[in-house]
Design brief:
InterPro entries: CheY-like_superfamily, NreC/VraR/RcsB-like_REC, Sig_transdc_resp-reg_C-effctor, Sig_transdc_resp-reg_receiver, Tscrpt_reg_LuxR_C, WalR-like. This protein has 315 residues and is of the alpha/beta class. The protein contains 16 helices and six strands. Helices cover 45% and strands 9% of the residues.
């Protein structure tokens, strides 16, 4: 081969007789105006079709880098969680509302049932922060937790719901963080409703209320609204429309709160088993209360008791 032909062959191979032979895979020479790739080891460049690492990280400013970076971001809607909720907390349900509640009732089973029904915060927005079975514990828990709303039973050991309201009057009057009370009771007697409303409660609902309606009532009370079961609103209107205080019934005052509950249910025709179920007490306890009521009122049987209660509009 002539010297001219040998020179042409060398030029095709890169101008040097010392370049890599075919199959060795040495690093390609950088193109014009490009420096060596920083940190790139020989023979470790990306395979054909793989995204450049710098582009995938969004470092580069060209459109290819932007597309690659956006393709790596997970779609929040694909997870089934609302955007901005983080998948936890009261906002995760989409309600966007939250209320802290204390349950005050002397029946533990009832408190457990209410908490199971409304206390799933991610679903209802209601967070139960405390419970209490009597007046003293109620005042202590309410003072320490400062809830927005208290679900308050009317009849409690230690003085009843009215006593809780009296001892928490300063918390109710707090203009910056008021504690509001919603009475939740088995009783729908006018004197019970009027008593707690005069004591400062924002509403009164009976224990026949549904879970969803109770949640709605809690939020309405938190907003400062007055909430009543339909039948009870009339009691309040009648009471506050009159300037005269209701007369004191000395016979009725002899009865305890529980005895009054049993009296009303007996007068409405409930059987002992039905009363026990409604008040979460035993049949034997119901019998004891009935005996005490008959003795205190000097009545002989439940028929006389029914007439007595009807005459005083307690039924």
């Amino acid at each position: 081969m002539s010297d001219a032909n040998r020179a042409n062959d060398l030029a095709v191979q890169g101008g040097s007789g010392t370049g890599p032979t075919e199959g060795q895979g040495g690093p390609a020479e950088p193109g014009p105006g490009q420096g060596p790739r920083p940190g790139a080891a020989p023979g470790t460049g990306p395979a054909e079709g793989e995204p450049n690492a710098a582009a995938a990280s969004g470092v580069l400013g060209d459109s290819g880098a932007t597309d690659a970076a956006s393709s790596e971001v997970p779609d929040a809607s694909a997870s089934g969680e609302p955007a901005g909720t983080g998948g936890s907390g009261p906002g995760a349900s989409g309600l966007g509302r939250h209320v802290r509640v204390v349950l005050v009732d002397d029946h533990r089973m009832f408190r457990t049932g209410v908490q199971a029904e409304i206390g799933q915060t991610d679903r209802t927005g209601v967070e139960v922060v405390g419970e209490a079975p009597d007046v003293d514990q109620a005042v202590s828990v309410i003072t320490s937790t400062r809830p927005e709303v208290v679900l308050l039973d009317v009849h409690l050991p230690g003085g009843g719901g009215v006593e809780v309201l009296r001892r928490c009057s300063a918390l109710m009057a707090d203009s910056e963080q008021p504690v509001r009370f919603l009475a939740l009771s088995v009783s729908d007697a006018a004197e019970d409703v009027i008593g707690v409303i005069r004591g400062g409660a924002r509403g009164y609902v009976t224990k026949t209320i549904t879970g969803s309606d109770l949640v709605d009532s809690i939020f309405r009370v938190q907003d400062g609204d007055a909430v009543f079961s339909p039948r009870l609103a009339g009691f309040v209107l009648d009471a506050f429309a009159s300037t005269d205080a209701p007369p004191v019934d000395e016979d009725l005052d002899r009865l305890t709160q529980r005895e009054r509950e049993v009296l009303r249910l007996i007068a409405r025709g409930y059987a002992y088993k039905e009363i026990a179920k409604q008040l979460f007490i035993s049949v034997k306890t119901v019998e004891s209360h009935v005996s005490a009521v008959l003795r205190k009122l000097q009545l002989s049987n439940r028929h006389e008791l029914t007439r007595w209660a009807t005459a005083r509009r307690l039924v």
